[in-house]
Amino acid sequence: MECLERIDHPGSWVKEKYQEVQDLLREPEAKCDPNKLYERKVKAVEILMEILEALTHCKETLCTVAAAITYLNLGILQADLEDRGLAKGYFRKCIDLLEESKLTAEGILPAVSVNNQLGLIYAEIGSYEEAKDFFKQAEHLYVEFKRDVSRDPVHMVTIMGIEEIEGDLCAKSILEKLHTLTLYYLAQVCRQLDDKCSFALYCHRTLSKQLSQNKITQDLDYVDWALNAATISQYFIEQDKFPQARHHLAAATYILERYSEILKAKGTRETSESVAAEYENYDHRSADVARCWAKYGISLLGMSRERLLKKAEQEDQDSRPAELPNEVCKYSQTEMMEDPRFVDLEPELESVTSKITDGYLLDFNDARSVFLNVRKWLAEAKEYYTFENHASDYAWIAQDLSQAFKLLAFFEDNEDRQARMHKRRTDILEEVIEGLCPRFYRVICREIWVELAETYSEILDLKIDRLQASDEKPTAQVVAKIERLARSSIKHYQSYLSSLETKKSEDGVESFPDDLLYPALYTYFHVGRLYNKIITSDVQQKIENMQKSTDAYSFVVDYCDKHPEKQDKFNKYEFIKLSREFVTLLPLTLDRLKQQQINQQ
Fold first, then answer.
1. Which residues contact 260 (CB under 8 A, 6 or more apart)?
2. String of DSSP letters for 508-528
3. CA-to-CA distance for 517 and 75, rounded, in angstroms?
4. Long-range contacts of range 327-335, CB-CB < 8 Å, 24 or more positions apart?
5. Which candidate, 246, 347, 387, 477, has a CA 20 to 30 Å from the CA of 257?
6. What is the DSSP string of 472-494?
7. Rounded CA gap, 517 and 597, in Å?
8. 108 close to 179: Cβ distance less than 8 angstroms
9. What pairs with residue 503 in β-bridges?
10. Are 188 and 123 within 8 A, CB to CB?
11. At what angle do helices 442-470 and 514-531 cross, to 10 degrees?
């Protein structure tokens, strides 16, 4: 370029030297011997320092931008050579030189790039606030430059005197790619800073940019894009923003369907190892997206239940009908943010979104429609996550299905059908727990044992409530059913308790870890309650059941008495107060039963 020709060196010298740097670094790192790669980078640094020395003699604006680009390249190389201190110094010199020209056609690419690079360095050392500042500056520069739609950026190699290589990205595409990286980096630092709202928003913007770039570059990673879209949906689900969650899940499904067509055009799994690997990845991530859809349905069922319970509670308190909020879940005014949508995809997504609602559920028919979708998605997920190859995931999927049945039962008025739904839960979970080794899957087994115990207990309560409402004498069949349910619940609670480890203090007092203390004591309370629910006319059996009930309550009370340092925590738990009452009352009943037994003999 003319300005570079007026440097003391020959006019083509800077161009030739910069071309040397390009040639040294052109070979992909993965294909290069690590020692040779290090040597090449060191050599490139030496050449760039020579270029920098030459550029200091030129005071024109374009030479200043060329010097800034040289500092940018030096910083990138030093960062690769793991000298972050030197890299930061070079990057800051680059920023200083670009102060007057950062929003010009020549300065925008190095300006955005250097802010991204500095942000990365601070992110790598855990200084996420500082990193965010640099990424935000890169974002601001892009937005300001794009305000003038008639202006295009100039390629950095062009500024250094080199013609753009055919096949390489044009300057305009490079700017878009740099901005996509900015948005991606902002998403990551927002996640580290626990700013979930901004994390979701920047993830969405990143995905939107990737879609728009794909129209030009055709290099979209379809599977990765779909997985990221489905992952963002989980944030919206947590915030009860079901329209936004459904939209992102639908986009994930649509993109996977497009990729499926591309994959079929490549051949079958038998075509080659690489194609087989692509099919494996597609199956894996399709199962993950199906699980995300299932979480959506389960959360919608759960939030709809909570909403109806609050309505009923309000009616009880006010003695007047309570109005439900709008049926479609939306952002509240206090947390309003832009509604993130993939506008270009919306027409294609309708066929997906039409299969499930994004509004709250009001009755059994609404809930059943969602439940059937959840069951279908979980069945799809199990096609990949088989018990033989993915035991943990298979167990979690089974737990999700159990949860879906539990939530559906809430919307069912008929007690017999409720009981059948809970019975399906026990069938699902019993099948899983029989195949899991507690030694290797202790945490999952504990979860399933407790859920099974609770489910049997829920069926038991339904049976007892129905019996009490009828005022009829229980038949032998009903009595036997109640006992089986109670003992099944107790069995799984005991399995859970047997898996817990305690530590013994110097004075011989055994203690549960803090994270297991509440569930352990509460489980003992439940065991005591269950033994009291068994119906029998046999006095000896009554005595044995009541003794076991008393023992369970006594364990809770004794544990609390042996740990006076935790009394403030214990006083918050209502079940501990009840345990103390039962420990006082049950022995009196036990004595009467024993006396009754003596009198019968």
1. 282
2. S-EE--HHHHHHHHHHHHHHH
3. 53
4. 327/359, 327/360, 327/362, 328/242, 328/243, 328/358, 328/359, 328/360, 329/240, 329/241, 329/242, 329/243, 329/303, 329/358, 329/359, 329/360, 330/241, 330/243, 331/241, 335/197, 335/239
5. 387
6. -PPPHHHHHHHHHHHHHHHHHHH
7. 38
8. no
9. 511
10. yes
11. 30
**Class of residue 517 by CB neighbours under 10 A (exposed 0-12, middle 13-18, buried 19+):** middle
Q: Are strands 510-511 and 503-504 parallel, antiparallel or unpaired?
A: antiparallel
How would you class 513 by CB atoms within 10 Å of its CB: exposed for 0-12, middle for 13-18, buried for 19 or more? Answer: exposed
Per-residue model confidence (pLDDT) at position 111: 97
Residues β-bridged to residue 504: 510
Tokens of 61: 């604006």
Nearest to 361 by CA among 415, 297, 295: 297
Q: How many CA atoms lie within 13 A of 73 on its CB side?
A: 27
pLDDT along the chain (601 residues), means of 10: 44 79 75 77 90 81 90 94 93 95 95 97 96 97 92 90 72 93 96 93 94 82 96 93 96 96 93 94 97 98 95 72 48 50 91 95 96 98 96 97 98 94 97 94 96 97 89 87 96 95 75 90 96 90 93 94 87 91 90 79 64
- The encoded tokens of residue 445 equal 């087994």
Distance from C-alpha of 72 to C-alpha of 113, rounded to nearest angstrom: 8
Tell me 503's DSSP state: E
Residue ranges of the alpha helices (H) in 195-345?
196-217, 222-238, 242-266, 273-318
Q: Round to the nearest angstrom and report the end-to-end CA distance of the chain.
A: 116
Q: How far apart are CA 395 and CA 433, in angstroms?
A: 8
- 218 — phi, psi (to 5°)? 55, 35
The 3-state DSSP class for residue 161 equals coil
Question: Does residue 190 contact residue 198 with C-beta atoms inside 8 Å?
Answer: yes
CA torsion sign for 448, 452, 458, 459 is positive
What the block records as the tokens of 174 is 């490079």
What are the CA-CA distances from residue 129 to residues 195, 449, 575 (Å)?
11, 44, 45
Q: Please give the Cα distance from 569 to 511 (Å, whole number).
A: 15
Cα 341 to chain centroid distance, Å, stands at: 20
Who's near 163: CB < 8 A, 6+ residues apart?
157
DSSP letter (8 states) at residue 504: E
Written as one string, the DSSP assignment of 149-193 is TT-----HHHHTTPPPPTTSPPHHHHHHHHHHHHHHHHHHHHHHT
Q: How far is CA 214 from the centre of its chain?
A: 26
Tokens of 141: 């520069």
Residue-wise over 318-337: b if at least 16 C-beta within 10 A, else e? eeeeeeeeeeebebeeeeee
Distances from the Cα of 338 to the Cα of 202, 308, 359, 401, 439, angstroms: 11, 29, 20, 34, 49
Using the structure block, give the residue that is written with the tokens 């033989």: 388
